[in-house]
Write a sequence for this structure.
């Protein structure tokens, strides 16, 4: 909406001011890389980070979340009684700094999943208190990135503020009124001049050649590619390799599936119903009480994951379920990659069409 | 050191959110009656607070909770026509939650969420001949539909029920079946896969019953509810009778954790069984690579 | 209020570390004693009753005399629970099964004393008696212990996570040790410990047993990538799970030399050098 400039040396001041009124989280250096974590000191915030193991989705859907507390008892007639009280966990004014454009795409999908149809009040309660400050990606995180293929190199409209590093300053775009207020109240910002905007344009147009394409097809073709290849032999090959460890889905910015479990206090009366991240790659995910498993083989589970990413989610929410962030590729110990798999399907199809080519 | 990041739950204090409740919070209901149906199934009568009507359709399900144990989807056995202040659930002891449920007695409270999902579209069924083919525990949701039709008998055409159970001991609702057999406005055939000495009825899988009935394929709706191994073959029989895929309705069982289209467990292709199902036409199911 | 179930603890070949964890659990969750009555627990108390409903058994069966004791426990208890890796899997004790038992006795007790202590290949208690539930781990996880006791008190069948450790490790946002050059059996090991070792930087050694769908072939491939020899990979696979691999027979995912070890045929030359053994002592 409106472009401002914040001199780089002013960033810690901005962060410190925000910390007075918000929980501020963002990418920080860990022993082995980077992770989103609470910013205790402004200098911890590293906006020039490659990637994190878990995306910021953990602030929208915590790994373990209490849905309600319960108390069970036996009344004077010996009957089992139940009391419940809903819990809205981690609801507090929160600012998430340094969200990459791919991860913002993930958040926009989360918003659709949890707020369309039945409204998930637990998600909504947290979501309403979260402000997103994006950071423009000027170079790929590493070789696993394929954001350019997935069209996530441009920020989707979920940010409140979006920062682009331009030489000695950040150009900040306001994406919402809340973002605008945040800048006015906490930031020492000035309106961008024509010179600033010219520099911004130059920075943005210069970034594209730094990103490479990894897919042999366009993302628009993914739903049809996957439809045609439902019975592809590629799935069986992947099934042999797969460790069924669920890492690919746990680190995915768009995976949202969860399990629901009851925890019980030692008094055997009180407890919490919780939801926990779950993975369609695990054996039990589609198992029903009678013992029938709708996705018994690892091949069928991997296929389901790809179908969701490239087809099913698109059918329901009109955006692809893959952001090209590359996290699943980094997490996979047996080198199952999204570009590699989609390209293999593409090749298998070419081979089917023209057997002589093989 | 690794793994030293700030724990994520920084606030866990219970609080109401804008005074609203939660889609995951069950209504506390009371069991008013319970009886043993077979060695594996019990029927529970459940009353919502204030005797509120469940307002469900045949084929819909509720999420049943025992806090401290968990929650599971259970089809409603009562027909809407027989649902007033209470409704019935026929529950097979098949897993963790249902095992504990079987120990509950009248007066005990349970949690109920729902009804959820798309049931059978009675408006579509009205005026038509109805061929219902449940297998095993599928008789419980089928009962909801059959009772609904019997209670509004003049609104439907013929009613044919073909029921298959594994063995005589697993046949549900024996008294009711006897009563149906005595009526002239319902055709009932029952078969068992494995008879015992006492069994004098049909023997063999449910598909063996189909040659024994004739239907008008232009004005019949076929409905099958049961495990995948059964409905796959029943559908072939229904197609063989000349029904087209849009005239055949089926109900899939899937693992469900939320009932509200979020948790991902019951996904069939891009649809959620808990929202868009559990009742589907065979034509819809054909479009799902995963369903059949 | 029905009487509290009586529970008893027993130890076989083990370090008693799992029972220590139970004592730890009682420090933090004393309320457990409102739910159960402990009637026998040599590690913690001197009083002793021989009537109990639930028996927790730590340790593996490593000699003939153990069998009678196990059968006596089974006869008394309505529910028998294997407590920890030794009882559940055979555990580290089963490492000795890789060599002929006589050679092991000589190595451990010396030529003079080898007859003093009878011994035979180590087995989990389930090899001798029916076991109703297992609490895995070396040692057990106190929260899992409490959870499983609670499930039994609710009349439920205790259930373990049936997915690999990687799930819990990722949820803790740990960097994967296998990508940092540290061998880790997490991808083939049953979760439930909340990834405690890997969270503190130690590769998983598989003490909770194999996950239900272990991909041994690709696990070996990953370990080869760390520069481990086939023999070293065998050693990691067999550290806690030798007995399980023994049960797989020729299908065990071991090298040809490792397969030899299943029948206790490894040469004594592969014993650890005395110095090395001392260092670990």
């Amino acid at each position: 909406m409106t472009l401002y400039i914040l001199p780089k040396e002013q960033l810690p001041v901005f962060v410190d001011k925000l910390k007075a009124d918000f929980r501020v989280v963002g990418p920080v250096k860990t022993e082995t890389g980077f992770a989103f974590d609470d910013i205790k000191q402004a200098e911890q915030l590293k906006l020039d980070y490659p990637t994190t193991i878990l995306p910021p989705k953990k602030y929208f859907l915590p790994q373990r979340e209490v849905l309600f507390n319960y108390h069970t008892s036996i009344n004077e007639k010996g009957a089992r009684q139940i009391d419940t009280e809903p819990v809205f966990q981690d609801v507090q004014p929160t600012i998430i700094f340094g969200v990459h454009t791919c991860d913002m795409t993930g958040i926009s999908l989360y918003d659709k999943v949890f707020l369309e149809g039945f409204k998930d009040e637990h998600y909504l309660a947290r979501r309403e208190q979260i402000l997103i400050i994006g950071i423009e990606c000027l170079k790929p995180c590493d070789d696993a990135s394929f954001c350019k293929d997935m069209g996530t190199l441009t920020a989707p409209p979920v940010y409140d503020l979006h920062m682009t590093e331009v030489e000695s300053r950040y150009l900040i775009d306001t994406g919402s009124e809340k973002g605008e207020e945040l800048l006015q109240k906490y930031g020492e910002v000035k309106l961008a001049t024509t010179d600033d905007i010219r520099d911004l344009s130059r920075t943005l147009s210069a970034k594209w050649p730094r990103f490479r394409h990894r897919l042999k097809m366009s993302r628009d073709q993914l739903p049809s590619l996957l439809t045609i290849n439902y019975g592809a032999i590629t799935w069986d090959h992947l099934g042999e390799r797969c460790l069924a460890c669920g890492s690919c889905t746990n680190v995915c910015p768009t995976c949202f599936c969860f399990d629901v479990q009851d925890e019980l206090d030692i008094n055997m009366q009180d407890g919490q119903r919780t939801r926990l991240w779950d993975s369609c790659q695990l054996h039990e995910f589609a198992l029903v009480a009678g013992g029938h498993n709708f996705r018994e083989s690892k091949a069928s589970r991997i296929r389901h994951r790809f179908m969701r990413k490239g087809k099913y989610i698109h059918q329901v929410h009109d955006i692809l379920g893959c952001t090209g962030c590359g996290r699943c590729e980094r997490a996979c110990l047996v080198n199952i990659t999204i570009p590699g798999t989609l390209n293999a399907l593409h090749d298998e199809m070419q081979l089917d069409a023209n057997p002589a080519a093989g | 050191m690794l793994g030293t990041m700030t724990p994520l739950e920084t606030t866990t204090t219970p609080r109401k959110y804008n005074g609203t409740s939660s889609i995951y919070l069950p209504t506390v209901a009371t069991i008013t009656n319970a009886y043993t149906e077979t060695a594996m199934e019990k029927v529970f009568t459940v009353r919502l607070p204030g005797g509120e009507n469940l307002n469900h359709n045949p084929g819909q399900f509720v999420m049943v909770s025992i806090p401290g144990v968990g929650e599971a989807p259970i089809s409603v056995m009562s027909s809407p026509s027989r649902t007033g202040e209470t409704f019935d659930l026929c529950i097979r002891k098949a897993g963790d939650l249902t095992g504990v449920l079987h120990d509950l007695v009248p007066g005990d409270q349970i949690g109920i969420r729902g009804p959820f999902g798309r049931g059978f579209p009675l408006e579509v069924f009205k005026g038509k001949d109805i061929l219902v083919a449940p297998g095993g525990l599928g008789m419980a949701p089928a009962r909801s539909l059959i009772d609904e039709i019997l209670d509004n008998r003049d609104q439907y055409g013929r009613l044919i029920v073909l029921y298959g159970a594994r063995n005589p001991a697993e046949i549900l609702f024996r008294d009711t079946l006897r009563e149906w057999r005595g009526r002239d406005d319902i055709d009932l055939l029952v078969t068992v896969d494995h008879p015992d000495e006492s069994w004098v009825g049909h023997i063999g899988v449910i598909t063996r019953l189909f040659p024994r009935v004739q239907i008008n394929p232009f004005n019949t709706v076929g409905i099958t509810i049961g495990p995948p191994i059964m409905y796959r073959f029943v559908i072939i029989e229904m197609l063989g009778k000349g029904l087209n895929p849009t005239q055949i309705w089926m109900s899939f069982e899937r693992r469900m954790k939320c009932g509200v289209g979020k948790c991902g467990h019951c996904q069939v292709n891009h649809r959620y069984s808990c929202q868009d199902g559990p009742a589907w036409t065979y034509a819809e199911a054909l479009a799902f690579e995963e369903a059949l | 209020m029905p009487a509290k179930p009586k529970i008893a603890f027993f130890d076989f070949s083990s370090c008693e570390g799992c029972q220590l964890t139970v004592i730890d659990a009682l420090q933090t969750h004393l309320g457990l004693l409102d739910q159960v009555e402990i009637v026998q627990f040599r590690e913690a108390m001197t009083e002793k009753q021989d009537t109990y409903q639930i028996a927790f058994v730590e340790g593996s069966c490593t000699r003939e005399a153990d069998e009678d004791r196990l059968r006596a426990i089974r006869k008394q208890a309505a529910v028998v629970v294997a407590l920890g890796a030794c009882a559940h899997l055979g555990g580290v004790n089963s490492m000795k099964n890789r060599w002929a038992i006589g050679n092991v006795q000589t190595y451990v007790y010396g030529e003079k004393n080898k007859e003093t202590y009878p011994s035979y290949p180590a087995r989990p208690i389930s090899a001798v008696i029916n076991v109703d539930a297992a609490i895995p781990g070396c040692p057990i996880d106190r929260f899992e212990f409490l959870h499983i006791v609670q499930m039994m008190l609710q009349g439920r069948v205790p259930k373990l996570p049936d997915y690999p450790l990687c799930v819990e490790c990722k949820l803790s946002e740990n960097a994967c040790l296998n990508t940092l050059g540290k061998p880790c059996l997490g991808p083939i090991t049953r979760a439930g410990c909340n990834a405690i070792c890997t969270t503190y930087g130690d590769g998983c050694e598989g003490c909770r047993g194999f996950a239900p769908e272990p991909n041994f072939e690709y696990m070996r491939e990953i370990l080869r990538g760390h520069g481990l020899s086939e023999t070293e990979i065998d050693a990691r696979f067999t550290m806690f799970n030798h007995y399980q691999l023994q049960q797989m027979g020729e299908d065990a995912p071991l090298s040809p030399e490792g397969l030899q070890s299943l029948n206790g045929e490894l040469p004594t030359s592969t014993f650890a050098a005395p110095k090395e053994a001392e260092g670990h002592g």
